[in-house]
Prior knowledge:
mainly beta; 7 strands; 3-stranded antiparallel sheet; 4-stranded antiparallel sheet
Amino acid sequence: GGSFYNVHPLGTAPAGTRIRVDITSGSGIDPIATATMTQMGASAPGGTTRINFVSDDDSGGNLDPRLDFSLSYESNVVLSVGSFDGTFGCYWVKVEVTVP
């Protein structure tokens, strides 16, 4: 029992990049995924930090999440995966990146 929460840095990508993330659970867990996009420092307009996120629970079928989004600005992207019901388990991550 308990809960888990894993963070996977995906890197920096330019505006217009399409990212699709499929999570497949292998041990009966119900994973939930969130991608956080941040822009800060000199690359942010006026030096003001920008942050955005997308989240999903079951769009990938069989209780698995799928994220499919495009970046509106150059961003550092971080994927966070946890369990909806707090149980431990294994999962696989597939990331597809299409750069404009």
